[in-house]
Design goal:
Order of helices and strands: HEHEEEHHHHEHHEHEHHEH
Strand content: 15-25%
Structural class: alpha/beta
CATH architecture: 3-Layer(aba) Sandwich
CATH superfamily: P-loop containing nucleotide triphosphate hydrolases
Largest sheet: 8 strands, mixed
CATH class: Alpha Beta
CATH topology: Rossmann fold
Length: about 325
């Protein structure tokens, strides 16, 4: 308890005061949306932000209308906001270019069957190199904040586990030293926050409770926020809907059909709201994390404006003490 108390005393009030925010969660819950919304909040705080997609085939897709980053270098998609994708194999090759400056020798290494087999077979190597690349981007001082949009839960946890495993397995040497530097960054509450994104439904909640426990108890990493996405918050209750449903109607058939459809939609929304509220209470009780609820937005096309609206909603929670300073324009597409 002593270390936890000391960490709490030095932990920044806002997760955006850290240098690294790592987002984990089940696939399809909106990690990319939340990561982009967090980045927009940070940019409004005049921070230079790197939004980093981690080792996933779909990270090259269009995120909220922002320009993709298909290459190995960061791409500025808004003033102060950069996107980059990191894949473990590419990170390993980038590292080798630093330590093997002779191009012909390096190309011979890349082309060899031994190297190809080693990269494919070595357990955790690509994950370790990718997380090392993240450490490099944080350490080089080019960014005020690095936000990592990770793959689905199982793979994301593998990234977080690897530096500790390498540090403990290799007791001396280069791998030990490099893994220690990465692990020290990840577990430093003044520098890093590991946040989780979920939706308030049974399977995602079960998985989220497990990942929150592993992050905090087994890996002892500093927790950030628990973002509960797509929360239904109906404007009326079942008690308020009752009189409307019981009211006699004697209009035209088309009007009757419209009323029935409207009542059915209202009943469904009330049911979703009750379900989300129930699982939200379970998340709060079983994780102890700070919940940040994001509303379900009824949209035919979800775009940049919607992500920016969500960023305005989470801003008072993730950056309560921060105030925009003059000198940087609002993010515009």
């Amino acid at each position: 308890m002593k270390r936890r108390t000391e960490d709490a005393a030095t932990e920044p009030a806002s997760p955006l005061e850290r240098r690294l925010v790592f987002l984990a969660g089940k696939g399809g819950v909106g990690k990319s949306t939340v990561a982009t919304a967090l980045a927009l909040v940070a940019v409004r705080r005049r921070k230079r932000v790197l939004l980093l997609g981690l080792d996933s085939d779909d990270r090259g897709r269009d995120v909220a209308g922002l320009r993709p980053a298909p290459g190995a270098e960061p791409v500025e998609v808004l003033p102060g906001l950069f996107r980059q994708n990191v894949e473990g194999r590419a990170a390993l090759e980038e590292y080798l270019r630093l330590v093997v400056p002779v191009r012909r020798v390096l190309q011979a290494v890349f082309d060899s069957r031994v190297y190809q087999y080693f990269v494919a077979a070595a357990p955790g190597l690509k994950e370790l190199m990718a997380i090392g690349k993240i450490w490099y981007e944080v350490d080089r001082g080019r960014w005020d904040l690095v936000i990592v949009d990770s793959p689905a839960t199982g793979h994301a946890l593998q990234y977080l586990r690897m530096p500790k495993a390498a540090y403990e397995t290799f007791t001396t040497g280069l791998v030990h030293r490099e893994a220690k530097r990465v692990w020290d960054l990840l577990r430093d509450p003044a520098s890093t926050a590991v946040s989780v994104v979920t939706v308030a439904e049974e399977l995602p909640v079960n998985e989220t409770v497990a990942i929150c426990r592993e992050i905090r108890e087994q890996l002892a990493l500093p927790p950030g926020c628990l973002f509960v996405n797509r929360v239904h918050a109906p404007d009326l209750s079942a008690a308020e809907l009752g009189p409307a449903a019981a009211r006699p109607r004697g209009g035209r058939p088309a009007d009757e059909a419209l009323c029935r459809a409207a009542l059915a939609a209202a009943e469904e929304e009330i049911a979703w709201g009750a379900l989300n509220e129930s699982y939200g209470r379970r998340l709060a009780a079983e994780t102890g994390w700070r919940l940040v609820k994001l509303p379900f937005l009824f949209r035919e096309e979800f775009g940049f404006g919607d992500v920016e609206a969500l960023s305005r909603l989470i801003e008072p929670v993730v950056a309560p003490a921060a105030k925009p300073r003059p000198g940087r324009e609002e993010p515009q597409r």
